Amino acid sequence: MTENKITYSTFETEHRVRPDDIDLFQHVHSSRYIDYVLAARYEQMEQHYGMAMEKFLERGFGWVVSSVQMNYKRPLNLGDYFLVRTGINNITERVCRVAFTINNKVTGKLCCDGWFDYVMIDLKTGRGARIPEDVIEHYSV
């Protein structure tokens, strides 16, 4: 991805580990970390950016994950409260990279970090679409 010089905001969402998040090793299953980031982004799009996913759908657009990098540091366990921090790292005409961290709220220790690449799609064709300039501007907070 081509680097840009814009600095983007980081937002935080709190969640708690539920019983259905736990795997047979008695800690959060790795796939749930993806769910945590997706849930946090969904909330943050509306609460912090003022442009919820529904606004994209109304315009005939959607976002799909094209790549993910996750680095597991330490486990989360049943009942743990944790903070998901996300922020746009970079936006090009076709890809939005969102960096994230997941920290245990009580200990403050990093449990997982990484990034997601999101591609905008045209819902009519199901194909990748250019990210409209007004969206890039709107998300440059």
Automatic annotation (TrEMBL):
<dbReference type="InterPro" id="IPR050563">
    <property type="entry name" value="4-hydroxybenzoyl-CoA_TE"/>
</dbReference>
<keyword id="KW-0378">Hydrolase</keyword>
<dbReference type="GO" id="GO:0047617">
    <property type="term" value="F:fatty acyl-CoA hydrolase activity"/>
</dbReference>
<comment type="similarity">
    <text>Belongs to the 4-hydroxybenzoyl-CoA thioesterase family.</text>
</comment>
<dbReference type="InterPro" id="IPR029069">
    <property type="entry name" value="HotDog_dom_sf"/>
</dbReference>
<dbReference type="Pfam" id="PF13279">
    <property type="entry name" value="4HBT_2"/>
</dbReference>
<protein>
    <submittedName>
        <fullName>Acyl-CoA thioesterase</fullName>
    </submittedName>
</protein>
